[in-house]
Write a structure and sequence with these properties.
Layout (H helix, E strand, L loop, with lengths): L1 H13 L22 H10 L5 E2 L5 H12 L3 E3 L4 H4 L5 E6 L1 H15 L9 E7 L2 H16 L5 E8 L7 H7 L4 E4 L1 H14 L4 E4 L7 H8 L1 H4 L3 E4 L9 H13 L5 H29 L6 H8 L3 E2 L7 E2 L6 E3 L1 E8 L4 E4 L4 E2 L3
Parallel strand pairs: 1-2, 2-3, 3-11, 4-5, 4-6, 6-7, 7-8
Antiparallel strand pairs: 8-12, 9-10, 12-13, 12-14
């Protein structure tokens, strides 16, 4: 994600897309340590940061009170409900997780499961982080609202960094569907594979950001058939969104392809591109000399993006997450990649 931001800064500066302004990226490595998030905020603020990029899940929530005090907008590619509710100075340039959960479960109910076998058993495993808790709530809410569609076995949330899920695998082994995203998904898949258990693994778009990690950790034999939502197109799709990524990579990273940069670059590039567009529109309206955090917020709540190959994106006065559609993809060992199963699906439909 950091590399995607670096390339976008270069692109906007080289193309002189923000009139009267040059972008400068100031970075502080938190080492994913929550105790360092406020240190990072202060360090960047002291160096003149007028927009904060909170790249690590949970970091936007931590720095929100300070950003609101200082009227510095926070952009994050990692959704965290307490950071954006109630609406304030944090803008999540991504999709919320609960809507993705409910969209995928609705699609499975209508298109995947044969109910002649009865209702499928559904379980969930993940590491303890905001994404997992949102997913847990989304699964529980959907199953409560549709008790005839799934038999919800439960969610098992392990401490961050847990690399074995033997006990949890034993509790979930009879499930027809097991929800497992990114790191936690790789761990539970590996535990199932090591013990000869079989299930249909499912997840949200978070796993795409860790595409290479998932492949390296569990292999295509285990990943084959994995069904996930996606909020960005796959690497080899023929559309304007993928073409734009390829253009920037070829310019700033010669010899590299989107696959070389992994899912985290690919997905966050398109999401954070909207952050740069909000910034451009704000500066165009008030001028570089008068730009401030309020100008960014005023532009953001009126922002929308329509790009071929990319889902519907917008903010409003009350909505602080950007992406409002997802598509369903299947991970394929034969294709050594992801295969699109649906068009973009509006959340809640």
């Amino acid at each position: 994600m950091h590399q995607a931001i670096q390339d976008l800064v270069k692109y906007y500066n080289d193309e002189e897309l923000i009139p009267g302004a040059k972008l400068r990226l100031v970075s502080y490595d938190t080492r994913t340590d929550p105790s360092r998030y406020t240190l990072a905020y202060d360090w960047c603020k002291e160096r003149g940061a007028t927009i904060m990029l909170a790249m690590v899940t949970g970091s936007a929530q931590t720095i929100r009170p300070f950003a609101e005090r200082d009227e510095i907008p926070v952009a994050t590619p990692s959704y965290d409900e307490p950071a954006v509710e109630p609406p304030g100075w944090v803008f999540a340039f991504c999709a919320a997780f609960k809507p993705q959960v409910k969209t995928l479960l609705k699609w499975l109910n209508e298109n995947h499961w044969d109910y002649k076998q009865g209702s499928p058993k559904l379980g969930h495993y993940d590491w303890e982080m905001p994404i997992a808790l949102d997913t847990k709530d989304g699964i529980r809410e959907y199953c409560q609202d549709h008790p005839d569609q799934f038999d919800y076995v439960g969610s098992f949330i392990a401490p961050m960094g847990s690399m074995s899920a033997a006990g949890e695998a034993g509790k979930l082994k009879d499930c027809d569907y097991v929800w497992g995203t990114m790191f936690g998904g790789a761990v539970i898949m590996k535990s199932f594979s090591d013990r000869g258990y079989h299930t249909q693994f499912i997840a949200d778009s978070g796993s795409f950001g860790f595409y290479k990690f998932m492949v390296n950790r569990v292999g295509w034999e285990t990943l084959d058939g994995y069904i996930t939502t996606m909020t960005a197109p796959w690497f080899d799709e023929d559309n304007a969104a993928v073409a734009f990524i390829k253009e920037v990579i070829s310019r700033y990273r010669p010899g590299k392809t989107p696959e070389d940069m992994d899912g985290a670059y690919h997905g966050s590039f398109l999401l954070m591109y909207s952050m740069f567009e909000v910034l451009r529109q704000a500066v165009e309206k008030v001028g570089a000399e008068d730009f401030d955090g309020q100008a960014f917020c005023d532009a953001a709540v009126k922002y929308s993006l329509q790009m071929e190959g990319f889902p519907q994106c917008y903010f409003t006065d009350t909505v602080r997450y950007l992406v409002h559609q997802c598509a369903i993809y299947r991970w394929s060992a034969e294709a050594q990649g992801l295969v699109k199963l649906t068009d973009w699906l509006p959340f809640g439909e």
